[in-house]
Amino acid sequence: MSQPHETPETTPYDVIVLGAGPVGQNVADRARAAGLSVAVVERELVGGECSYWACVPSKALLRPVIAVADAGRVDGARQAVTGRPDSDRVFARRNRYVTDWDDSGQARFVKSIGADLYRGHGRLDGRRRVTVTRDDGSRQTLSARHAVAVATGSRPALPDIPGIREARPWTNRHGTDSSTVPGRLAIVGGGGVGVEMATLWQGLGSQVTLLARHGLIPRMEPFAGELVAQGLVDAGAQVRTGVQVTALRRPDPGGPVTLTLDDGGELEADEVMFATGRTPSTDDIGLDTVGLTPGSWLDVDTTCLVQGVEGEWLYALGDVNHRALLTHQGKYQARTAGDAIGARAAGRPLDDAPWGDHATTADQHAVPQVFFTDPEAAAVGLTAAQAERAGHRVKIVDLAFNAAQGANLYADDYQGQARLVVDVDRDVLLGVTFVGPGVSELLHSATVAVAGQVPLKRLRHAIACFPTVSEIWLFLLAAYQLDRD
Fold first, then answer.
1. For the CA atoms of 323, 326, 327, 330, what is the dihedral angle to 10 degrees?
2. Which SUPFAM superfamilies match (predicted)?
């Protein structure tokens, strides 16, 4: 007998996608391009975390802050800047880029590729089955002939410390959708979210205190965190490392919050934000019905096929597979997995060897990442320490950016550093790190060099235009050659 509000029939599709963020949209698009029918299920806004609470709003908010800082580094422009960014205009700019949290445009895109959009909470219901529960309690059962792709993303991980519920801390969502500048903001966590939010809110007028257990942005080269920390201090923020929050107090819901620290001290702020990691949004999607643990990260192979599930039908893309919690990397996985789903459905052989059409090889070797701080920090591939731990014989090349005249024209007294990590046995780059104003636009050239395994002998023939910041490539490669000779 059917349950109340339940639609008894099952609607078949070739592919079902759980999550309509950028990752889900990309795998749906690739599956449709392969001629497969696709259902996309979304329980919040179509466009996901990236579009409304992460990448898009944070960069829309940060750009005016960085633009003002950039102007302050150029004589002549500096004198024209007489104050901080206009916070009301900055928030209005953010609202435009997130379309006022209206997802109708992105919903139209999903439909434009020929996929069917289901709004509701999608849960696995055994092998190749998904049940969608709508807000009104009605349910629809879908079945997948070939694949179910999980692209449900992640959410903030809050520490279990006394007083955290009463303190009502900000997370990345509050940090990007708020339209009021707190007088004092404490940010807990020195990773990418923490340093970007510290840059943003300090630039808009908060007195920011950034608390980090270790150094800042620890997955990059150590000098990157050091330069970003100095940039925050120069902007007026306080940066305290080697400290943890052990308790919170907020007796008055409208009053300040007090942070108790493990060094015995206390810190009072008007708001506190936690940027202390992410947890997968897999706790209530029916993993137990296919033999997996609810709330777990999903282990996948090179085609993003989930391990431990029989039948080669369940895929996990983006944050949920924990390889790289970055939108662009998740979209890369989605494109690759979508092509693999199409090949498997058509009975074609997979090209899943390293760097093949159906292999997410870049997840291990060429993941690019930018932190839009001041200065910016951008890196791809392995750090020197990671390369050495992996057993590579490496040569490290470090240069200050002011070696390039283009950098000095970009900003008076340009401050920044670049590093190459070279595999001396193969004469190719294993990793590249840039820190400095505007370096995010240099990162793709580094990514091409690392992913393409371009020999340095050939790379020296890639001529950088004069006078640009990218001239740093010329000096880095020359320094490597001189040292090798």
1. -10
2. FAD/NAD(P)-binding domain, FAD/NAD-linked reductases, dimerisation (C-terminal) domain
Q: Is the pLDDT of residue 457 over 50?
A: yes
Q: What pTM was estimated for this model as a whole? A: 0.95
pLDDT at 186 over 80: yes
Q: Tell me the per-residue pLDDT of 103-161, one tens digit each, with 9 for 90 and over.
A: 999 999 999 999 999 999 999 999 999 999 999 999 999 999 999 999 999 999 999 99
Could you tell me which of 293, 279, 355 has the C-alpha nearest to residue 322? 279
If asked whether residues 327 and 388 sit together in one domain, one would say: no
Cis peptide bond N-terminal to 57, omega within 30: no
Residue 96, domain member (yes or no): no
How far are the Cα atoms of 132, 327, 427 from residue 123, in angstroms, in the given order?
6, 23, 49
Domain end call among 362, 391, 416: 362
Tell me: do 195 and 256 sit in the same domain: yes
Binding-site residue positions for NAD(+): 189-196, 277
Residue among 45, 46, 47, 38 at smallest CA distance from 130: 38
* 109 shares its domain with 134: yes
Tokens of 122: 């999608």
**Residue 378 three-state SS:** strand
* Domain range enclosing 425: 375-484
Assess whether 21 and 140 both reside in one domain.
yes
**Do 29 and 111 sit in the same domain of this protein?**
yes
Cβ neighbours, 10 Å, residue 84: 15
How many domains does the structure of the chain reveal? 3
Which residue numbers belong to the known binding site for FAD? 59, 122, 152-154, 319
Per-residue buried b or exposed e for 416-447, using 16+ beta carbons within 10 Å of the residue's own CB? bbbbbbbbeeebbbbbbbbbbbbbbebbebbb
Range in 15-29, 242-256, 470-484 the model is least confident about: 470-484
Convert the pLDDT of each residue in 462-477 to its tens digit. Answer: 999 999 999 999 999 9
Annotated binding-site positions? 59, 122, 152-154, 189-196, 277, 319
Residues 151, 10 within the same domain: yes
Tell whether 304 and 218 lie within a shared domain.
Answer: no
